[in-house]
Amino acid sequence: MSSYRSAFRPGLFDGQVVIVTGGGSGIGRCTAHELASLGAKVALLGRNPDKLETVRAEIEGEGGEAACFPLDIREEPAVEAAVAAVLARFGRIDGLVNNAGGQFPAPLAAINQKGWEAVVRTNLTGGFLVARACFIQWMADHGGSIVNIVADMWNGMPGMGHSGAARAGMVNFTETAAFEWAGCAVRVNAVAPGWIASSGMDRYPPHMRDIIRGLAEHVPLGRLGLEAEVAAAITFLLSPAAAFISGTTLRVDGAAPNFKPHWPAAKGKPAPEWDAFPLASKPSVLGEG
Ligand SMILES: CCCCC/C=C/C(=O)SCCNC(=O)CCNC(=O)[C@H](O)C(C)(C)COP(=O)(O)OP(=O)(O)OC[C@H]1O[C@@H](n2cnc3c(N)ncnc32)[C@H](O)[C@@H]1OP(=O)(O)O
Ligand SMILES: NC(=O)C1=CN([C@@H]2O[C@H](COP(=O)(O)OP(=O)(O)OC[C@H]3O[C@@H](n4cnc5c(N)ncnc54)[C@H](OP(=O)(O)O)[C@@H]3O)[C@@H](O)[C@H]2O)C=CC1
């Protein structure tokens, strides 16, 4: 019997098979545990086979069932083969959690084409390839539910330009796929985590640790989110409780969708319009000068 303490009804996913990409760590690992604890057989996808194997052993040690399918989601033939291998192993695919992703923090001017494409392919192209393979190989004929993990980077986020552009694309892909695949009883939604205390945070460089520790101050709910809180949102969207929900993006961010980490501001440069329009109001609240 699993020791994972799910908020959902036991057996909710009995007999179902769910693919979790990035299932070897962080939010993906936690989601895999959540789903396995509710009866799902879980297919773990990611690049590092050792990480996947560790999670598989954890789940099976708790009485669940899981299998590993190492791949890079950016490689179309590998994606097609992995989805086929999941079907060969488990015989069906009811759900996909498109969670694999990540980026390196850098200002736009420091990102070259190779770096931009590495991140866009990780956070947009890869998710599209996995969803498309699941749809064509199984869900088009049998229905299913897809949850794409994006990120709370609305209206731009300094240092995350490549990732933000990819996530915006993934939200639009979610909306389009929800339309196009609805006729096949396939629901497609997204979850947008804000600042989450996941293992992924340890992958950022040492100079960012103080920034990460200070993030909670900028979250109205006063803390970072937990991996399990993102997993619960994903589980809800996969479940029958969300049967009439498709094409939406669910924020899991403690009410902090637009926080921008500190970024150097332009100093000492008055707005040109100020002088160009001599009759412009000068609000007294701003003081003289
Ligand atoms: C509220 C909003 C939330 C925002 C917070 C988000 C949090 C998270 O997402 S937590 C998850 C964290 N996990 C990760 O970010 C995963 C770790 N990152 C990676 O794996 C990589 O960054 C990757 C996603 C791009 C995959 O990399 P890979 O394909 O292995 O590529 P390389 O590392 O070989 O790099 C390719 C290329 O990219 C450029 N580049 C890499 N690092 C930098 C850098 N620091 N600055 C500028 N450019 C960089 C560079 O062009 C690399 O090529 P080479 O120069 O030939 O190495
Ligand atoms: N933690 C946070 O605050 C936030 C996280 N997110 C997003 O949530 C998702 C999970 O992140 P989190 O758990 O925190 O971090 P992790 O870094 O622990 O998880 C990312 C997972 O994606 C896998 N992955 C990355 N690139 C590829 C690839 N090309 N092919 C296959 N697998 C890949 C990694 O495994 P491997 O390296 O073995 O391939 C890893 O298991 C990511 O998309 C992340 O960007 C979004 C907003 C905030």
From TrEMBL:
- The main enzyme category here is oxidoreductase
- Which pathway does the database say it acts in? Lipid metabolism
Q: Which GO terms describe its biological process?
A: fatty acid biosynthetic process
Q: What is the first-listed, main subcellular location in coarse terms?
A: other
| Catalytically driven reaction(s) | (2E)-octenoyl-CoA + NADPH + H(+) = octanoyl-CoA + NADP(+); (2E)-decenoyl-CoA + NADPH + H(+) = decanoyl-CoA + NADP(+); a (2E)-enoyl-CoA + NADPH + H(+) = a 2,3-saturated acyl-CoA + NADP(+); (2E)-dodecenoyl-CoA + NADPH + H(+) = dodecanoyl-CoA + NADP(+)
**Subcellular localization(s) per the UniProt record:** Peroxisome
A molecular function GO annotation: trans-2-enoyl-CoA reductase (NADPH) activity
Q: Which SUPFAM superfamilies match?
A: NAD(P)-binding Rossmann-fold domains
Q: Does the keyword Ubl conjugation apply?
A: no
Q: What is its EC number?
A: 1.3.1.38
User: According to its UniProt record, which protein family does this protein belong to?
Assistant: Belongs to the short-chain dehydrogenases/reductases (SDR) family.
What does the record note on quaternary structure?
Interacts with PEX5, probably required to target it into peroxisomes.
Give the protein name, as stated in the record. Peroxisomal trans-2-enoyl-CoA reductase
Q: Which organism is this protein's natural source?
A: Aerophototrophica crusticola
